[in-house]
Give the backbone structure.
Amino acid sequence: MEFKINRNTFLDGIQKTLGIVEKKTTMPILNNVLLKIEDKKLRIIATDREISLISDYDAEIIEKGEITLSAKKLYEMVREIQGETIHISKSNNVVKVTCQRAAYKIPGLPADDFPSITDEKDVRINNIKGSILKDLISKTAFAMATDEMRKNLNGVLLEAISEGSNYLLRMVATDGHRLALAKQETSEPYPEMEKGIIIPRKGLMEVKRIIDENESVGFGLNKNMFIVKTENTLLKVSLVDADYPDYKRVIPAEKGIGVILDKESFLHALRRMNVVSSERYSGVILSLSEGKMTLNSTNLDVGEATEEIDITYSGEDVDVGFNVNYLIDSISVINDESILLEVGLGLKPSVIKKAEGDDFLCIVMPLKI
Amino acid sequence: MSKQLFSLHSWPRAIAHIDGDAFFTSCEEAIHPELKGKALITGGERGIVACASYPAKRLGIKRGVSLQDARKICPQLIILPSDYETYSLFSRRMFGIMRRFTPDVEEYSIDEAFTDITGMRRVLHSSYEEIALKMKKEIERELGITVSVGLSITKVLAKVASKHQKPAGMTIIRGRDIAEYLCNLPVEKIWGIGNATANYLAKMGIHHALEFARMPEKTVLQKFTKPGVEIWQELRGKSVYPVTPEEKSSYASISKTKTFAPPTSNADYLFAHLMRNMESACIKARRYFLSPQKIVVFLKKNDFNTVGSETKLSRPCACPMEFSGMIRNLFDSCYRPEDIYRATGVVLLDLEPDTNTQYTLFDDPLQAEKIKAIYNVADELGQKFGKHTLHLGCSHLIEKLGKGRRGTSTVREQTQLKGETRRRHLGLPLIHVKTQPSG
């Protein structure tokens, strides 16, 4: 195996695998990336057996072949190389990386031991604007659980729906304490997604990385794999094989007390409350009374914060407590000037959404203080 | 080497450690004077020795030996069921006597306590040695049990002292005498140094307490974490562990295990027994305003192997009614009908103060609040009419089939004074003096 490749292209290619290769694994070869010379391209493959990334890069091919090398070490080597073109050659599982007058020798493991990763040529691929998926992810990912015990919440639910003659994609995430739901219109239906799929946290982050760099991507489903495809890259993510909880029953049937708030000023007030909160006491109490909302956060270890905001309200006095971070998270992702807070009474959940439009909502369970 | 001076002052602090000698059997001897001086053990209901009297210890009967083996060693051994109620009454009185001398009494366990008597010399018109001796004398005279006293300048050293001479010993380690007492003391005998640390020290060639105490500060800071450094300081006479008279209010975990007899494979009974342990553990958690987020249950088989399982709750909760269904699942995953079990147990972990409750979206908070209210009432009833007066249906079988106590019940339980019931009786130990029939 022997080829020459542009240094920046190669560095970029290896860097993209770093999030996937396993750091702690019982199979040492999963610390490695597979370098494979195909007709006119260098193919780099990384996998942790749940997520796999196949990317092709232009290279000047001298001799065909394949080898696996430590992703981390290879990345560090290439990062420190200064020349423009890197020359790579292999003899007896030892790879020589040379550039100008510098040379590294790095022992590799044979490619035969690497898990076989197919490139799923015959899967039906739908096209979608990257911005649509990106919007859905940024509006929901914060609500994913981080609890290893509950696998089904450790990811997002993605499902295709139709409302009237419109086709939509809906993404839902919840950690049990709050639930975020976002919708985006699409130009075509995606029938295979109607049942809904659960994309795990780590895979979702890789999907996001790809769409951050590409205007338009293709996606598809094969068995229990979610596939994202661009011109040179194929990402496969194993889906979470579990039932997503029935989130629809969590959406409050009756509306709470509606309060319209200016997003930025409310957000800043909450951040001021957050200064006195700690992991143990992260509660903020919102008190509604005629014409104003009072925020109060008290922490026995730190101190107390209070603030008043003018609102349009004329009902009875109401107190409700929340984890202040849950409010901040959900309000931060709203891209509108004003938000609507629907306060649920009697320990019922509250709803946060845009003042106009229903493409996003976040349901937050109150904190009993 | 034993001449090294760790402290120039004799009494920078004065801390006494008082430790009951073979406490449970001593209590039994105190209320059954005819048993004095005999080979005697308690723990009859557990099938293993919980506490052995000194005559029994001399025969080689130690804590944890099975009754079978103990009987082999000494056929005329007197085996008594544990009477924890009486022991805790003695314990309370012992601590009460210590409090006559100083308010700083830390109840470390049922039979031992630390007291800080620094600064009490003038008030009590006595030296520290005399104060400690008076405490010892009064406990022994009033309760009829013996205790070993260690007096020194830190808690760790006081504990070294009380262990130095047992039973009924009184050992004083002044600041300038520290080295003398440490030179022959194996490190694993030091309070706070367990197996792992002792092995670690052995790797550095340190086998005796004095060698440890003489290590240079730099090395100690480098090689040990905070607890190790603190023990090192205490051994050198620098008091870092204060005597804390407050009742313990923070727990890392709460556990309840109970053995029953005869061993059984009856699933309903086992589950009732397990749930009763869960109820007891949760009562304790609620008393300290704590709620566990993680729960472990285990079943102990007759061959002493244990099977267990754990679960995480969606939120911290100390009301077993809410999660009894989950416990049922855990139980089902551990229980095999072909096995015979002798004990069940639970452990509550990840305890959090139950101040703010973050309910989850999939909860029914109103239901949960109702259950909480029920447990408030249950705890009140428990205080008035005895623990478990109001209990879950799934643990009710315990009331019908009994707790499965092994052996005979204690003399105090057999003797009900007028107006007493099994659950409610006066907190008095009964003393049984055999009198010769006249004529």
Notes: The first helix of chain B runs from residue 23 to 31. Chain B touches chain A through 15 residues (CB under 8 Å).
